[in-house]
Amino acid sequence: MLAATYTQGGHFQLEDIPVPKIQEDEILVRVRATSICGTDLRIIQHGHRKLQPGQKIVLGHEFSGTVEAVGSRVRGYKVGQRVGVAPNIGCGQCDQCVEGRANMCPDYSAFGINFDGTHTEFARVPGSAISQGNVMALPEEVSFDEAALNEPFSCVINGNDACRIKLGDTVLIFGAGPIGLLHLILAKLSGAKAVIVSDVIDEKLDRATRMGADHVINPKTSNLKKAVLSLTHGEGANVIVTACPVHSVQEQSFELAASFGRICFFGGLPHERPKITINSNLIHYRNLIVTGVTGGSNMHYRAGLKLLASRKVDLTPIVSGTYPLSRATEAFQMALSGRAMKIILKPSG
Ligand SMILES: [Zn+2]
Ligand SMILES: [Zn+2]
């Protein structure tokens, strides 16, 4: 079968590899849609700390498909069934796992990092993923493409929960990439009075407007602080989400928050330079809450599927390209160019 692989310390490659064999407690999924994530791109560019030198891995973790084979000891799944899989698998035993937050498990494992991922034709699903509820039947209303996108969507649901948006809040989102736009969708659903989106690329801001942003600001061509304060009658934004890995954006968010504002650093900073400078009195005098999230849990994944099935959200505007797996090299080049939004690979044509 065809697979997009990465070798630690080496390179990205599209190659033929054997179809994985499954154990009696595992499932084999025929991948129908698998989207390229920033994590895949970071692995290709910088490797991953969990990989040994020379170790080869099939990339990818945002995916959906049909059950191709079911191990003899697996119950509750059948061949041909449509499934989506939440890709972070906890140990199942620590406090975080027991509380349903496998994404916070100190010992979690994930597709495309700890074991072979999904940018291929068939993906082996470990027994631990099945027993912990990571493998979910897809509602018939949810397409394979949507189910692949449900993975980043579930992470943003996690972020949106952390923001505690209240009815009538003004929400400011930094970054109009796929993650920023998913935050936009959820902020509107959560009862925000107005959503302001900021980005340095006008084309991205146009897309945000088409997706319902009430105001868009390009800080390269207008004074962001002035604009936010004038839109909020001098108070600042009630909720601020940073969906871009930019130091100055994180620093500036404190100045743009209203009293009792909530700031969510959804996007992390590069590991080698994670520090920012802030005026901590802004947190003190304005009673700010500063938070951040990483990944999403099975419950967030499930919530995403329910929202998609209800047709209350439409994720298709965040997709900028769909490629057959045979053109994965081109698809990755496009994704690395920085010009693309979400790109979906279709292994089954
Ligand atoms: Zn991802
Ligand atoms: Zn755990």
Kindly describe this structure.
The protein is an alpha/beta fold. The protein has 2 domains: 2-141 and 311-346, Medium-chain alcohol dehydrogenases, catalytic domain (Quinone Oxidoreductase, Chain A, domain 1), CATH 3.90.180; 156-292, Rossmann fold (3-Layer(aba) Sandwich). 30% of the residues lie in helices and 26% in strands. The strands form 4 sheets. Strands 3, 5, 6, 9, 10, 17 and 18 form a 7-stranded mixed sheet that branches. A 6-stranded parallel sheet has the order 13-12-11-14-15-16, sandwiched between helices. Strands 2-1-4 form a 3-stranded antiparallel sheet, with no helix packed on it. The model has no long low-confidence stretch (mean pLDDT 96).
Task: Jot down its keywords.
single chain; 349 residues; alpha/beta; Quinone Oxidoreductase, Chain A, domain 1; Rossmann fold; 2 domains; seven-stranded mixed β-sheet; 11 helices; 30% helix; binds zinc ion
